[in-house]
Amino acid sequence: HNSNLTLIPLLRTTSTNQNSLQLFPLGKKSIQRVILGSQDGTVQCFAIKRGMLHHDFKTQFKKPITSIQIHKDKAFIATSNGIIRGLNKKGKEFYRMESTMTEATQQMDVRVPSLWLAGDYLCVEYTDSEQTGHYMSRERINCQTSQQLIRSGQYSAVLGCQDRVIRVVQGNQGVVADAVVEGAVTSLAPYDTSKNHDLLYGTENGTLGVLKFHPSNSQPSFGWKINEKSYVTALDTHDFTKDGVDDILVGRDNGSVQVYSFDISQEPTKVFDRSLNESITAIHCGHVTSPSTQDIIVSTYSGKVLAFAAEGADPVVPGGVGAMQKSSSTGKKFNIKDSVKKRFGKASEGPAGGKIVGVTKEKRIDSLQKDIEKLEEKVAGIKNRYSKLSEEMIAVHCKYSMKSKFILDSTMASYRLTMELDIPIDMVALSCDIPVDILEAETPGVVISTHNDTNPKSGSCIQSTFRCTQDSNRLEIMLRTVEGQFGKLEAYVVPRLTPKTCQVVSFPVKPLSLHERVHHLDMKGAMNVLTVEGQFSLEELHGWISLCLEGLPDRVVDDEVEYFFKSTFQQTVLALKLKRGEATFTSNNVTTISILDEMILKQATERKTRVQTSLKVNDSSYEEVLSLLYPRLEYQMQLSQKVKLIDCLKEIQMQEEDTSFLIDEYKEILENDKKLRGELTTQTQRLDFLFTIIIRLLTDKYKYKRQNAQKYLPQLQTMLDSKSFTLEQLLALFRS
Prior knowledge:
The protein is of the alpha+beta class. The chain has eleven helices and 43 strands. Helix 6 crosses helix 8 and helix 9 runs antiparallel to helix 10.
């Protein structure tokens, strides 16, 4: 299917939010209109007629468009200030409602006569414009939809939350069903089959899955799951492959546009995958460019509306802002005649020698070409005036949008830093006041320059520059933090504009930054327990812990709370029980306990709050932590030896036709030779990271024994420097 679909740019507007593009039902001439809202408050509706893009209406609202939903031939528009408007196909307003929400409206779903709105924590249901339901979530709401899940014929609000839980809310009854999934929920979509009303979900860690709801059981069951790296931003279902079963359309943050289809198997198969290198905000399927074939229609964060059209569809003459944007980036003037000839041969003939709809007359082509030339002259004049002005003045206002994310990737035990503009990025400079390990830049065509600053007066431990050599609106960087230190990571993002301007975004790096929140853990094994007592409120205590760990909710509504965390790197566990005046922390890693102890004492001292701490240390916990860590150590220590064997094994492979006589270890080295050579370049960096963890563990052991660890550190350092020791030797040193 990749080879059978052609990418066609339809429109360019300003930045868009998720769920701000929809398709109207098929019209009289089997063409579907597209309605799009943007962050500057513009709503526009257009259709492709006779191969040309025609606007039905364009309306300007004062606030950003956060959601658009379609009911029959009517569109409902939600703006961030909570005003809901209903527009018909001609753009006339037939409905208006001002919500009672105290938060900015982020999500909307419409099932006439019902309507659901959601903010960061609040979900409100309206029926015939009257409030009939209200739910305050403990966790942040990321996405929302509605579906007939519990009772047939009755719709419920479905909320995807930051704490990895999908919650089904029924009116004022609150949560009637929930399910814990693999990551923070970022996208939801109903998936109706002949038997069930199922639910599709996408997560922050890239999982795409389905929840099956049964009338006899309020708790859902899990169906198939698909795991990828980039998180899901858009979902829809449509029978794109025309096999009688709805396919699944997926848009991801890294720009992937995917179609999953069902054949004989119960699990979907990927039949289409194309990358646009910028995040997808909406994805749908319909008859947009041609009444005879279906297209996949997507919108991107930068405001592009694109169609993946099947071969053989009626061609659309490229024009408008999208075409001019493409031509200006290459430095060549856009010529409609050349474009048509390039795709179809003669300007007046189609692929089969027939006439092309919309370009049958040379006058129309000449007219369009003249319009484009006038617009190019106008743009050149504005750029010239702006450059003259910038010689005397400094630009202090950035006329472009940016979004950024700093997300823990649990599979890689590292952070994924993503920055995206609605225009190409020139460079990004990173600065951090604590050590971080730059792993890689996952965006192609990026030149990296890193400087480690050892001067404490500079206030920065690491400075890295990422320069984009290709046009790219999005930059993704993988980095790993070192637990135990609290600091700030700053990113200076410079777009490809004249004069140069810059936006700065900062992210806190927390002391237990590699811990991720989970919903339940089996706390068996050797555990250390820290108890903290004092005259503090639960809100104060919760605020202190939030400075150490990611994933805690912004507010506390219960009198007593319990949280579980797991280290993504060391696989150690942590349990927290918090209430007014008392906190209990349980972990098999004494370093984790030590970090929490230090942070709480520091915060209590700053606020002049008296606290008492007591710690029960289990000596067996050190052995448990080292046993979990040693496989990573062993792999890095053996890496040099494996790389030395590659050339010898390659020579054997050239001389022997059959290498099946080699042991499995040697076969694996041959299969992964490129990977091993690449890992060798960062071996020292990785070993230093692991050695730091072990040294801190030994220091904490003697710290709580009220002994000085300095006299034991030289012996440990000698063992680590040798890069040749067994787990038993390491354990013996800790026991002594």
